[in-house]
Amino acid sequence: MLLFVLFTGSQWLLSSAETPAHSAVTPAPREGGWMNRHESFNQKVQANQGNIDLVFIGDSITQGWEGRGKMVWETYYGHRKALNLGIGGDRTQHVLWRLDHGNMDGIQPKVAVVMIGTNNSGDDRNTANEMVDGVTAVVEKLRAKSPDTKILLLAIFPRGETFNDQRGKILQVNQAIRKLQDNKHVFFLDIGHRFMDKNGVIPKAIMPDFLHFSTAGYGVWAQAIESKLASLLGDEAVKAIAAELNGTWTFSINGPDGQVDSEMKLRRKGAQLFGSIVMGNDREFQLEQGGVFGNRVEFTIRRDRPQGGEAVYHLVGEIKGGKLEGEVTATLNDEKTTQPWWAVR
Q1: CATH code of the region 247-344
Q2: Please, are residues 246 and 235 in contact by the beta-carbon 8 Å criterion?
Q3: SS3 category, 43
Q4: Into which CATH architecture does domain 18-233 fall?
Q5: What does the pLDDT look like over 284-325, one tens digit per residue?
Q6: Which residues are identified as catalytic?
Q7: In the beta sheet, which residues pair with residue 45?
Q8: Which end of the chain is less packed: N or C, by CB atoms within 10 Å?
């Protein structure tokens, strides 16, 4: 009997050790510009030993803090000795390789914000179980590399304009990785619901391509984690500015024959901006993809031209002393022109 127990026990250990690894947990590098960005992280880490309190680890959604999210980053993290460790296209296996090759060497940040896995979720990539393994491996690697760092693990964000199978797969993974939370070293937040409306639709104002964020979308992300992040960092939470935009404005732009004034109506709802502009012959055009962060607004107007074709106007502006002013980029037949615009109540 004892021999049988020993034998079966050793067999279990053997089969466990021989369980084949899958791609989501097998550290792997990538080629091209990816390696350059990875090496740039290592250089920043080496140049800032002992001077990094906060890191963000992820894929293109995280890398986007340097693009459309730049203004939001400066507002929330510019004063916090923060480092962005996001690379577009990364999956869990690529993050594992980066962690093994210098991205965390010699630093012990107070907090690491982790959001990874969406690029593993394609049907031809990894199963839900494998995705859970991959995220778990990233968390465990971080714990081993930097034991004193608190990990704020974010649920993988929803993707796709409306309900779809990939969202369902991600949801199942999120339900499982929630179990990694121990409220001591690992903390979990699921903020995905903040990026969609009550019908489960993700607005273009938040995610223009239903995956990557606009400036307003990054604002929603930052605000959603700020209370918890400030608590983990032990500092004061950043208070978001809520610009007062509701009401009727006089929109102005310089035309061929001088200044042209139009009526513009705005209505803000959270990070989204709705409204209309009357442009010529009392034609009213609805704002599309309207977003707000702080004092910054962004929206698009599409206008059919009598002579044929469509003109698309993309407007970005800020409130300065009660006045809205910025630039409008007009696109017609693949040609673009940019000029100032302003609006007053």
Answers
A1: 2.40.128.120
A2: no
A3: helix
A4: 3-Layer(aba) Sandwich (3.40)
A5: 999 999 999 999 999 999 988 777 788 999 999 999 988 999
A6: 60, 209, 212
A7: none
A8: N
